[in-house]
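Schema walk-through. Below, the input block comes first and the output block second. Nothing else is stored per chain. Lengths vary across the set, and this one has 189 residues.
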Amino acid sequence: MSTEISALLGTAVPVMTGLVAGVRDEQLPQATPCADFRVRDLLNHLFQVVDNFQLVAARREVDWGVTPDSLTGDWRAAFAVEADRMILAWSDPGALDGVSPGMGLPQRTLGLMMVVDLVVHGWDLALATGQPYTVDAALVPPTAEFLDSMGDMGRTMGAFGPAVPVGADAGRVAQLIGMTGRDPAWQPA
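--- output ---
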């Protein structure tokens, strides 16, 4: 079975797993466009996202306070497995019903949050590691929907920085990246 969210994840996840697989060990200490994260930190956050959002789909409590170091063993393959499990968890139509007991937001909103995490952090990871990255056109409207409705709350909670002004000619993805507090013109040092 499939849902709106699992279909979106089915588009976003293969791109992200490709990016994760393309990270070289020597790139782990490099900066990313997300000021709080080096590449290693970003990868560990992505593991936390795919693990915790499996729990969110099942309406279980999640702990965002501790980010374990998941970059052990064959972590690239482990990420792909967990990301696929996340898609499966959100393919149950019941995962989209109601409000999350732990996060207090509609389940669909949390599903969109996950899509935005993959889109935006895919951009972060690609730029930080010099990999090509294109956002699939199907992911732009749900990313915009989430950022338009939840961007101010995200900034208040510290998930996003202050919006970075982006010219109208920059393209929709660059505008969305700017809404998260990232500079679309960021380049590695």
